C-alpha cells in the first residue's frame, strides 16, 4: 500500500503525462509477458484517461473472471490507499483467484480504478504448474506496475 497523495482520488500525474492522444481520447496499450511454454502468462494493458484495464491470459485464453477495484482510503488508516472490488466469475472458473488481488493491487498502487479480466486455462495442469502460473502472474503484475510508474515502454 502507498501513502495517499494530497488528493487521494486525483489521477497519478506520472500516468497522465505519458498517455497518447488520438480522437480526443487519451489511451495507451502495451503487452507484458512472463514465463515460457505452458506456463507463459500474457498481460495486455489498456490505460484510459480515468483508469486501467488489464487482460491476463494463458494457455487457452478466455474470459473467466472480471474484477473492478476502486481506490479508497483504508478503513483502518485514512492515510493509506486501499480498494473496494466487485467480482464477476463465470460458473466453474477460478480465474478470480488471480483477478481480484491484481485489480486491488493496481488500484491501490496507481490510485485509479482498475479492471482486470482473467482467462487462464492450462489443460491438465499439475500442482507445480499451477503454482508456477500464479507466480508468473505475480511477476507479470509487478513488471506491469514498474512499467506504468516508470514508463519504460
Q: What is the helix/strand order? A: HEEEEEEHEH
Rg measurement, Å: 16 Å
Mean pLDDT: 84
Percent helix, as a range, is: 25-40%
Number of separate strands:
7
Distance between the first and last residues' Cα: 24 Å
Question: Which outline best applies?
Answer: globular
Strand order of the largest sheet: 1-2-3-4-7-5-6
- What is the CATH class? Alpha Beta
What is shown here, in short?
This protein is α+β, with helices and mostly antiparallel strands and 153 residues long. It has one domain (13-150): Ribosomal Protein S5, domain 2 (2-Layer Sandwich), CATH 3.30.230.
Structural commentary:
With 153 residues, this protein is an alpha+beta fold. The chain has one domain: 2-Layer Sandwich (Ribosomal Protein S5, domain 2). It has three helices and seven strands. A seven-stranded mixed beta sheet has the order 1-2-3-4-7-5-6. The chain is globular, with a radius of gyration of 16 Å. The two termini are 24 Å apart. The N terminus is likely disordered.
